[in-house]
Task: structure prediction
Amino acid sequence: MLRLFAGLFCLAAPLAMADLRPLEETELAAVNGQDGLTISASIRFNPNVSQTRCAGGCGARVTIRPGQSAGVIAIDNIKGGFSFDGVTLDIVTINSGFNGEGAQFNRDALKLSLREAYFDNAQYTLSGANQVSATQPGFQQTDLLTYHTNGRVDLRGDLYIFPSN
Result:
């Protein structure tokens, strides 16, 4: 068996020594490909029943402290699933379309494309709070908006992020 693998290796060795060479501009222009970055993931946020400030237990919490603010913006009680297949990040040149504004813009923009993404039995609450952690003494939070869906919400399309001047 070992001799068989050694023989196959010896036959394949010349292929491994293939020569790399630079491509001429005309050869390179004929190459087709795709650039950008594609990501796929599936994430499930389950409630933690030991955290009793939420009915049935609390989900995940993300906080953002804007600038030198004393308070925080919180996305709280995140539960459910989020799955995406084929999220693509790419840099595109916007020089046409957008009801004529693309020609005026005529620069690069970041394009985020969702080929197949969905929320499944999702929930979150957008809040303002005086502290990052809900377990600290003196914690106060004001809930501004709660989103909840039973079932699946599909997301598809493109999001363009334009640079500021």
